[in-house]
Amino acid sequence: MPVNGGLTHIDEAGGVHMVDVGAKPHERRRASARAFVRMRAETAEALRQLPKGDALATAQVAGIMAAKRTADLIPLCHPLPLSHIEVTPQVGPEGVEIVATVETAAQTGVEMEALTAAAVAALTVYDMAKAVDGGMVVEEVRLLEKTKG
Fold first, then answer.
1. Angle between helices 111-129 and 55-68 (to 10 degrees)
2. pTM of the model as a whole
3. Which end of the chain has a smaller Cβ tally under 10 Å, C or N?
4. How many helices and strands, by DSSP H and E, does the chain display?
5. Where are the domains of the chain?
6. Catalytic: 127?
7. Above 60 in pLDDT, residue 53?
8. How many CB atoms lie within 10 A of CB 135?
């Protein structure tokens, strides 16, 4: 039962704990998240012109790897058997939009995995373009949707 304003990872004494999901049913769960890397138009165009195996492919793989390691990065997340991860970076005139979708059949949702995938993919784009555009901003890391059943 949530206490402390509904914060599920905080107990009555104010300590942190992993939420007990043992009594919850295994259900198919899906979450999508988005991140955006705002950059100069010239930087976006340079990324758009790169061949396959480029910075965007690297960001895509980084996002997939991050989703798989979320429980290692976020202390109170449950390790989950992920059944599908899709990370899609798309270059637009003002930057790169990354959408990550993660699925599982488990007792808890995958929104943290989707958010982690989107954020790490965005950070990877930043890392790979920072030499030419020091003014980039990673922004709008947010959950788009989560479903179960």
1. 150
2. 0.87
3. N
4. 4, 4
5. 39-148
6. yes
7. no
8. 9
